[in-house]
Structures are given as structure tokens and as C-alpha cells.
Amino acid sequence: MSEQAKWYVIHTYSGYENKVADNLQKTIENRQLHDLIQEIKIPTEIITETKDNSVKEIERKIFPSYVLVKMVMTDDTWYIVRNIRGCTGFVGPSSDEPIPLSDEEVRKMGIDTRKVEVSYQVGDTVDVVSGSLSGFSGVVSSVDTDNNLVKVIVSLFGRETPVELELGQVKKS
After folding, report:
1. Residue 3's pLDDT is what?
2. Cβ-contact 20, 91 below 8 angstroms
3. What is the pTM of this model?
4. Can you list the alpha helix ranges (DSSP code H) found in 1-102?
């Protein structure tokens, strides 16, 4: 059933994001809807402010008045979310037919974070298996799993050349 779950954006009254998320979470628990409404997120970021020689870390909402919900869209789940106190409706062309976020939008917003494990590390020899450098070999100089990138030193025209590739474009030799 998790295959059908998509991320939707709901609009709330200003300052009601936490109340809507809490009320929705309580409703999910009371009605045992964990399999239909799976996750609720309020995207935030930590900002460091320096004021009057003091440093403060402040958590700020990235999208004020919006809450993200990963759910399976049914008439019941639509009704439950739509009628949570403080919720004004789903984001989309009409409140009756909400449109889920695309996979690309979810990835760019960093909503679903995935831990990537690779079989190689810095210093290992790898083969490039796809892309314009397919068939070349090189040595890994850095691995950035957060951004899905690996830097490989490849010998091109007799010169050592660093190239940035996606993690899936190389495999350990």
C-alpha cells in the first residue's frame, strides 16, 4: 500500500502549521489510519542569527502556512485532512481534486531523504559504467552521498583529470 502513497501539500491558516500537524496526528492515531496517512512534515531550517554580540539559532518554517502529508488519497483521507481545524484545503487547481507532488519536486525539496550506501571509498579504483566516460577506470578522490556525486581521477589523453559523476555511474573494479 505504501506504493500508492504520495506527498500532498495542505494549506493552513497563518501560524496554524503545528496545530494542524498535531491534530492530524491525533486523528490518525485515534482512527488507526497509519497505513493510509503515513507522514506529516513541516519543512523547517535552522538559521543562526548574531544580534547584540549574542548568537541564536532559530528554527524557521521554509513554507509558512503549508504542511506536507504523505498519504494514500481516498475519499475518507481527503475528508479527514480537509476537515482538520485550521486547514483551508489542499494545494492544487481545485480543493476537490488535489494533485500530489512529483518525484522530482519531492527530491528537490529534500522531503524524502534516502541513505545511499556505496561499495567503494576514497582511494579505491572504480570503473565508469555509464555516461560519456563509460569504459574508463579511475581512482575515487571524494564521495558525496548527500548530493549523489563521486569525484574520480581519470586518465584522459595522458593527463590525470578529475571528473564528477553520479554514484550509480561507477562500480568498484
Report:
1. 62
2. no
3. 0.62
4. 17-31, 75-82
